Q: What sequence folds into this?
């Protein structure tokens, strides 16, 4: 009887939902013909509305008192059209207006993240790694030449080069698992920064689509699908810095109006840097993208890119050598450090529109990668005669596939199902003791790695009035193989399965206020060498997290996002790539508060600020010895951006990192810093002139710092202290861009 009553109620609800009249339509970019997802559609007499789906489609309940609808979207001019003309609505890019941000159950988080695009073209950027700084609370630091992946900090984590953050570009994984230099190594230098379109991010382990390494969060970058105009740009500045860029639109306007776009871009960068031993850093990038709308409702996207980069480096210098006057801040102890990296990417993605409310995405990708890095962190500690230079090297192939089906119903149910695999195969993954880069004194690690990850996930979201419930789960299977070339014994493969549940709840009070609770489990895999050496013990340590947050728009031009958060990590074993050893790191707990605010002063001036507090601690050590080395406790970023109608635009921005422990008992401190950057441009229809200044106030700051035990050539015994890479001094660059 109860089942019959439930069925009748469900049937009645469905019939009512189906019976309600609605205005249906589609919103697209007028130039590229691309669908605009998360555009906001409402009647002129109401603030309540709906958002467009992945295909740009919407269904707005009819209103007898209104006949005109308004469509708004960040970065586009608002459109007001009669409901009778809503079938296909074209929008043109226009000035950014915070008034167009509307808090809804469907779009709030992603709409807030999209605003980061405001900063993208208005702050000094040397590489795509700098784009990561648009994520509130995320810091990066370069500590061995311009071509090496930067160190990342977020939510009380020293993430190293990517151990606890999942990074993708156009769905292509950036992180390298079981990398020669560190787990999750995320090198974004293959992306030309001007091609970055949308930036999506999430903090914490709450997102089913992002699995391995997504404990502190994820960053998903997407390149633009079409160019507004072709561009040739030249930049030049201090320290023998030169950069050339060309972005060429390959198709005619007529082809673009039919929904087909193609472009090719190339970048060349050279810089010696401010160091006494020139870096000779050069980077060469080529990137091509083709996408077309298919006649039977769908879209095909093809991408190919290539990176080649090499550099020399001064490495990390010890405090005592600078204080004694042996070297200055930009000097060196070992000038033979440096490296090379190369990466080739290919991706094919087919989006099939099975119906107006169902999209099936299938992506296949491949990466070929080479890496060679020479470092010397301890100088003459282990080898007093030849020095302690090490070489980390690998060649790698990555192949993967990701299928994603999304569907939504009239009743407010949104479903996402995904599955796929990723296979990493390395050859000659090496850690060796070398002299002058070429002569190998001793192999510490040498072998071949094969790591496989198969995954599947399901994600269900339902809206009931002001409530939105999101329930998801992810299943990951890993298989680890390591062929150790230095020993005759072969250790058996190891495999493991992990399930990661997620539960997120939102309550939207109105179009100005929303509260949310995010909870979930995530993980990061350990290096395959750790897994095999430890016989598969505790190889997928879990991370449990929760966020309690508020999204609030107290005024039309002000948007605030605040969250209190918690994250607990289980025991894990960490492969220290520089030493070739395994270290247990123990259980950790992090709690914190994030606050971000954006304010539009008028139609041309924007301001923003981000405050990030964290208390990272080890849970297995006594109080006072439970600090996590280099984990940030307080950071802040912010600034102002301006865009005047006559073409003047630019930004003045700061970033601040507080002092933080460099060891477990906080007896050694990594010094904090505050750095300001300035960008100023004059942009016209056919050209742009500009200047970018990093470290405007020319402060002395340490970009990265480590508590390291080392010995200089004539020292009788080793010394443990701060070793650092100096941050760039006042650094000015001029640029000229021509548009056609």
A:
């Amino acid at each position: 009887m109860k089942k019959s009553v439930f069925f009748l109620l469900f049937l009645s609800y469905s019939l009512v939902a189906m019976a309600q009249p609605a205005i249906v339509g589609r919103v697209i970019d007028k130039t590229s013909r691309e669908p605009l997802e998360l555009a906001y559609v409402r009647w002129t007499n109401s603030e309540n509305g709906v958002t467009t789906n992945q295909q740009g489609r919407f269904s707005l309940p009819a209103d007898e008192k209104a006949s005109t609808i308004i469509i708004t979207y960040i970065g586009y001019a608002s459109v007001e059209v009669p409901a009778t003309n809503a079938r296909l609505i074209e929008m043109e890019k226009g000035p950014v207006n915070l008034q167009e941000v509307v808090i809804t159950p469907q779009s709030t988080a992603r709409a807030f993240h999209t605003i980061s695009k405001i900063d993208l073209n208005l702050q000094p950027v040397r590489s795509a790694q700098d784009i990561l700084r648009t994520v509130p609370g995320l810091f990066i630091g370069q500590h061995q030449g311009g071509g090496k992946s930067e160190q990342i900090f977020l939510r009380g984590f020293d993430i190293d080069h990517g151990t606890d953050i999942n990074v993708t570009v156009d769905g292509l994984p950036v992180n390298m698992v079981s990398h020669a230099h560190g787990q999750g190594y995320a090198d974004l230098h293959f992306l030309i920064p001007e091609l970055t379109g949308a930036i999506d991010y999430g903090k914490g382990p709450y997102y089913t689509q992002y699995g391995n390494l997504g404990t502190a969060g994820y960053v998903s970058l997407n390149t633009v699908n079409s160019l507004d105009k072709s561009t040739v740009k030249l930049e030049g500045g201090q320290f023998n810095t030169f950069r050339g860029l060309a972005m060429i639109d390959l198709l005619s306007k007529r082809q673009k109006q039919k929904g087909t776009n193609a472009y090719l871009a190339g970048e060349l960068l050279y810089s010696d840097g401010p160091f006494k031993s020139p870096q000779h850093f050069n980077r060469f990038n080529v990137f091509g993208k083709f996408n077309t709308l298919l006649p039977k409702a769908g879209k095909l996207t093809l991408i190919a890119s290539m990176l080649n980069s090499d550099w020399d480096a001064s490495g990390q210098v010890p405090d005592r050598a600078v204080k004694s006057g042996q070297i200055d801040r930009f000097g060196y102890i070992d000038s033979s450090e440096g490296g090379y990296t190369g990466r080739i990417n290919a991706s094919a993605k087919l989006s099939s529109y099975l119906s107006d409310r169902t999209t099936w995405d299938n992506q296949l990708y491949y990466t070929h990668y080479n890496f060679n890095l020479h470092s010397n962190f301890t100088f003459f500690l282990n080898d007093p005669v030849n020095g302690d230079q090490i070489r980390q090297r690998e060649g790698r192939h990555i192949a993967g596939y990701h299928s994603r089906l999304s569907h939504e119903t009239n009743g407010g149910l949104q479903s996402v199902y995904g599955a796929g695999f990723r296979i990493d195969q390395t050859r000659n993954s090496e850690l060796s003791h070398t002299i002058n880069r070429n002569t190998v004194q001793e192999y510490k690690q040498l072998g071949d790695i094969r790591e496989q990850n198969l995954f599947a996930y399901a994600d269900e979201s339902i809206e009931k009035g002001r409530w939105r419930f999101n329930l998801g789960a992810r299943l990951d299977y890993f298989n680890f193989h390591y062929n150790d070339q230095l020993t005759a014994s072969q250790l058996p493969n190891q495999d493991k399965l992990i399930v990661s549940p997620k539960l997120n709840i939102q309550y939207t009070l109105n179009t100005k206020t929303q509260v949310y609770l995010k909870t979930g489990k995530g993980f990061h895999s350990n290096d395959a060498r750790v897994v095999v050496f430890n016989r598969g013990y505790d190889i997928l340590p879990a991370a449990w997290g929760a966020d309690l947050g508020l999204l609030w728009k107290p005024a039309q031009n002000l948007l605030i996002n605040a969250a209190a958060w918690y994250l607990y990590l289980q025991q894990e074993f960490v492969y220290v790539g520089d030493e070739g050893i395994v270290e247990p790191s123990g259980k950790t707990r992090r709690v914190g508060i994030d606050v971000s605010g954006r304010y539009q002063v008028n139609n041309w001036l924007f301001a923003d600020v981000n405050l990030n507090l964290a208390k990272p601690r080890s849970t297995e050590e006594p109080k006072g010895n439970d600090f996590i080395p280099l984990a940030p406790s307080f950071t802040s970023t912010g600034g102002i951006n301006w865009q005047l109608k006559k073409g003047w635009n630019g930004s003045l921005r700061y970033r601040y990192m507080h002092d933080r422990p460099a060891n477990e008992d906080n007896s050694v401190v990594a010094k904090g810093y505050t750095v300001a950057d300035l960008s100023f441009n004059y942009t016209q229809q056919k050209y742009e002139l500009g200047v970018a200044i990093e470290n405007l106030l020319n402060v002395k700051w340490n970009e990265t710092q480590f508590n390291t035990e080392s010995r200089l050539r004539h020292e009788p015994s080793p010394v443990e202290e701060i070793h650092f890479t100096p941050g760039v001094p006042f650094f000015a660059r001029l640029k000229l861009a021509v548009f056609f």
